[in-house]
Design a protein that fits this description.
By secondary structure, the chain is α/β, with parallel strands linked by helices. Helix content is about 45%, strand content about 15%. The termini are far apart. Bound molecules: NADP nicotinamide-adenine-dinucleotide phosphate.
């Protein structure tokens, strides 16, 4: 990345993706990193402050707090949170962040991170999608549009795939209900449709590459993954690491339809089958050193074994 330093506002710094972006920009590139936090005394906020991340109290519901905290920045990373109880909140937050950014006037580049699901989301087609997926992806689309339409800055959209960490506890019980107990991984996938998986730290690496080359990546929409592999291969790799054997269960269309109201995309959303269609691993690997699923299982061996030991 170019050695020039910049001042960047990173949203969601206490979260997985925002935290990884803030850490990488501070620790490895020495950029000024700013953000707002809702609780400055949280362990996550304190750890970031110790790295030199400038934190002001604020929230995405409070535009003036964002405008204050964005003062003097030239780059912005937007990654909002999904609110299970009210998915529409995410688009309100994204629009608030962009409004604040527009009023600041000094921003030259914005990177927004949403989800690989946006690629296959047929907007307004409620028959195609599970109810929750449709709401979440609609919110993410609104955020993308807020960043890209009539924008005064260079922009790039990152659409990350499923986190590899969803296979760790406790997340695994939300993303793959019943899997740890039964050893059966039930999903909307088929034996042919590959999973696209990524580590939040690798999303951060791609974001940092994009921040370093604003002209090159302006206007690009990148699906982001560190690995693409069949369900069977993923389960075999997990089984090798945990010394158990796991079985894929490929749901029928009728079974998927019955799950339409589930909050778990893995068993409710058929378009997951297309998640890998927009992942160009060669390009992504030219941008950053990325972690394969096998590499993740190695790296997190202790947590992986802990999750599947019961
Ligand atoms: N899990 C996956 O497989 C996957 C795959 C692709 C995309 N995604 C998407 O990635 C996004 C980010 O995920 P993540 O894991 O990094 O999220 P996360 O760890 O849950 O972090 C969420 C962040 O949002 C902040 N936040 C929430 N509401 C806020 C508000 N009203 N004002 C200010 N800050 C607020 C939280 O701050 P506090 O510390 O104050 O709560 C936290 O920093 C999500 O939208 C998700 O849909 C996830």
């Amino acid at each position: 990345m170019a050695s020039q330093t910049h001042s960047v506002f990173v949203t969601g710094v206490t979260g997985n993706i925002g935290g990884a972006v803030a850490k990488l920009l501070r620790e490895q590139h020495g950029w000024d990193v700013k953000s707002t936090v809702r609780d400055p005394d949280s362990p996550g906020a304190k750890a970031l402050a110790a790295l030199g991340v400038q934190l002001l109290p604020g929230s995405w519901d409070d535009i003036p707090s964002l405008v204050d905290a964005m003062s003097g920045i030239d780059k912005l990373f937007v990654c909002t949170a999904t609110h299970v109880e009210d998915p529409g909140l995410e688009q309100v937050h994204a629009v608030n962040i962009v409004r604040a950014a527009q009023s600041v006037g000094s921003i030259k580049q914005v990177v927004i991170c949403t989800s690989v699901g946006v690629f296959s989301h047929q907007e307004g087609d409620k028959a195609q999608h599970s109810t929750f997926f449709d709401k979440v992806m609609t919110a993410k689309r609104v955020g993308e549009r807020a960043v890209t339409e009539d924008s005064p800055w260079k922009w790039t959209i990152l659409r990350p795939a499923i986190f590899m960490t969803n296979f760790l506890a406790p997340q695994v019980d939300y993303f793959s209900p019943g899997f740890r107990a039964s050893g059966v991984w039930r999903s909307t996938m088929t034996s042919e449709t590959p999973l696209a998986l990524v580590l939040p730290e690798d999303i951060a690496k791609i974001a940092v590459t994009v921040f370093g080359q604003d002209e090159k990546y302006h206007g690009r929409v990148l699906g982001v993954a560190g690995d693409v592999l069949t369900v069977e291969d993923a389960l075999t790799q997990l089984g090798d690491k945990t010394k158990r054997s796991y079985t894929p269960y490929y749901m029928s269309d009728d079974e998927i339809e019955e799950q339409k109201e589930s909050l778990c995309f893995t068993v409710a959303e058929k378009s997951l089958r297309h998640m890998a269609d927009n992942i160009d691993l060669d390009e992504l690997r030219s941008m950053a050193d990325l972690t394969s699923f096998k590499g993740f299982l190695e790296k997190q061996e202790e947590l992986v074994k802990l999750a599947y030991s019961g």
